[in-house]
Amino acid sequence: MKRHPIALALILAGLALPLQARTEAGPRAVTPRGPLAAEETANIELFRKASPSVVHITTLAARRDFFSLNVQQVPAGTGTGFVWDEAGHIVTNFHVIQGGSGAQVTLADQTSFEAELVGAFPDRDLAVLRIKAPREKLPPIALGTSRELRVGQRVYAIGNPFGLDQTLTTGIVSALGREIESFNSRTIRGVIQTDAAINPGNSGGPLLDSAGRLIGVNTQIASPSGASAGIGFAIPVDEVNRIVPRLIRDGRFLRPALGVTAGPANLTRALGLPRGVPLVQVQPGSPAAKAGLKPFQRGRGSQIVAGDVITAVAGEAVDSLDDILSLLETRQPGERVTLTVWRAGQSRSVTVTLGSAE
Fold first, then answer.
1. CB contact set of 6 (below 8 Å; sequence gap of 6+)
2. What CATH superfamily is the domain 256-357?
3. Which terminus of the chain faces fewer neighbouring Cβ atoms within 10 Å, N or C?
């Protein structure tokens, strides 16, 4: 290739430079940055303290080898959980382990353990697993309360989005008292909304306050793309702290029962009934039957025989059977509760001894 005379002269001039001149270039000196900002230091310290309590959950599914016909467990999905106590109980979302034949829990130090299911409550999208790990590897997460939360306060989420474990995101409490639908169509009330980035894989992980205390369990996002859009939801810790001990104790959440079936909303409109829950069935021998509650029925000639409408439970107004179930979940079978009941234009108070939903 023929070079231009000027270019050739420049190349030769460079080669002619002294060796010292050609080797002076090197890495630039680093500019000192000074101390970290107070907020950065606080974030680092919070993650250092809380992250050992956060675990990575791999859900397993049974697969049969086509050639050998041997059944093996293979990874089917991932999620997040956290250490509840030194006995090895791990809390996560029900939908993280739903449909799996097993689960594996990986701790912060990357050691893994097979997990057994202790109990689950799909109505609140909560589940408890248990692993047999040394107590020194199981630092329980610090518990806070959701009663004191305020919109605007700082929150932190630690989880495994897209399988990337031990990821920290920050944000604020965007709203309180939200309602979302659980995976079995039951309403979860009092939910925390946050703009801390929550993505697939974060489910079941902790939402923390600035003191590093658990204030919620990350459960869902609202996003048209399936990735974080700044609207995430967490089950409040007070709800978690009410349900988890009962799952550990009983292996399931035994909801108190009245033994009634509610009528549809159009029944209330058609009969001009007051706000409340009209009864269309009362099970014989149930707590409601023993308390004298009566359902609406059809008499002769399609005439409607007046029944009862439950308008309040323990003084709290109710609009649907879901409202009643949510209020009863805060109680135990065998407890007594006062219902406000309307029938044929008159209201009365009825005391019912709650039964079990078994």
1. none
2. PDZ domain (2.30.42.10)
3. N
| Integer CA distances (angstroms), 288 to 175, 199, 352, in order | 37, 44, 7
* Per CATH, domain 153-252 is 2.40.10.10: yes
**Does the pLDDT of residue 271 top 70, yes or no?**
yes
CATH number, domain 48-137: 2.40.10.10
The pairing of strands 71-83 and 336-343 is unpaired
Neighbours of 24 (CB within 10 A): 6
Rounded to two decimals, what is the model's pTM? Answer: 0.74
Q: Give the domain ranges of the chain.
A: 48-137, 153-252, 256-357
Does 9 have pLDDT greater than 70? no
Question: What residues act catalytically?
Answer: 95, 125, 203
Predicted pLDDT of residue 157: 94
Distance CA(339)–CA(333), nearest Å, equals: 16
